[in-house]
Amino acid sequence: MVAKIKFPDSIYRVLNYNENKVKEGCATLIHVSNFLQDKEDMNFYDKLERFQHLHALNETVKTKNLHISLNFHPTEKFSPEKLVTIAEDYMKRIGFSEQPFLIYEHFDAGHPHIHIVTTSIKADGTPIRLHNIGKYKSEPARKAIQEQYGLVRAEDQKELLKDVHSVNAQKVIYGKGETKRSIINVLDAVLKSYKYSSLPELNAILRLYNVAADRGKEDSRIYQKGGLVYRILDERGNKVGVPVKASSIYSKPTLAYLEGRFHENQALKAPHAQRIKTTIDWILAGQRQLSVSQLIVSLEKDGISTVRRQNATGQLYSVTFIDHKTKCVFNGSTLGKQYSASALQQRCTISIQAPAGQTPVLKPYILTTGNHVKSDDTALTVSLQQNQLSTPPTAVTGGLAPTASGIIEHLVQPEYSFQTPEQRRKRKRRKRPSDND
Prior knowledge:
Pfam families: Relaxase. This protein is an alpha+beta fold and about 425 residues long. It has 3 domains: about 1-160, BirA Bifunctional Protein, domain 2; about 180-270, no CATH class; about 270-420, no CATH class. It is built from 15 helices and 13 strands. The strands form 3 sheets. The chain has a 5-stranded antiparallel sheet, with helices on both faces. Helix 1 (about 10-25) packs antiparallel against helix 2, helix 3 (about 80-95) crosses helix 4 (about 135-150) and helix 10 crosses helix 14 (about 405-410). It is elongated. Mean pLDDT is about 80; it is low at about 160-170, about 350-380 and about 385-430.
């Protein structure tokens, strides 16, 4: 079992989030504790007023709301009654058994989990101490409950421990699911997992799942107000369906939030740039003739997807690399001049210098066939190795060791050439002077 505790500022938003899940058929309220009414007799405002009444008893406390999730292994299927028993035991162990709390069972992820909404303000107005509650209360409670109920240990669920809120983000197909829910699933899986430092870099990832973050045109009101919406894209990259405002999503992935992530990710992803550069150099050095499409296929085998842009004439002018192993996104030009779209095109079309007396064979640039997205005078080609974030491509080629990078750079220099068999013949041995000379 994995337990996570959040301390939201607004009890209204937390309650509204879970109640909307119920309306959408993605959750069920399975238990209420320490309320004056049964769960069947309460509406949204009955639940809200119970918490607000306690909050009014102590307005000086800033952190008073708790939003807890208990997450179980996908193989563990429990009845609502068993989930309530586990939740009540957990709340007792962390000191909240006398507090009002609501238990919701959610069905919107790949693993069973419940959400608990409660407050730290007691009936006498005093607050429950929350400092290090995760370390000193929740963690011992979690381990004890695992043993008592024979649950799969969190230590054995590495993938679930990394991000219990992540879902199996599928490529969104318009009309096959509720728009907002589908977009949220992708955002939950991408925003905190990948390192991107600009909106175009973020969109490069989101496009793999047919989603886009849209600021609107520069003369639009949403752009001028610093707003942001999320859209579903069809297979040709056209925006379809109703846009979803970033501010309407519970996690608040607004432009202001993203700009904070851009700044933070800039430093975090910098150490991982070398892996992409080394992988590209290694692929190019290992082939005498290579097209751009072949380079891209080779990169995909090593877990690196690409998003390429071309103009109306088919000329490649931009390439973005998405490394699913390090979870980092880089525009080609930021990696260095030799990794820009134009440089890569040139490096792919120029073979290693041919032997003396022979004509070099140049491999023409071939744009991969795929999904071409028409947008004014440009087309976008998305290379996708995977549809699920939780299942990255299998690595079949490894990166070079740092000591080999210099050799690679030397090999791809224009002045380097191979010798012909004739040139490799041993020099004629000079006749040794004999004793008779």
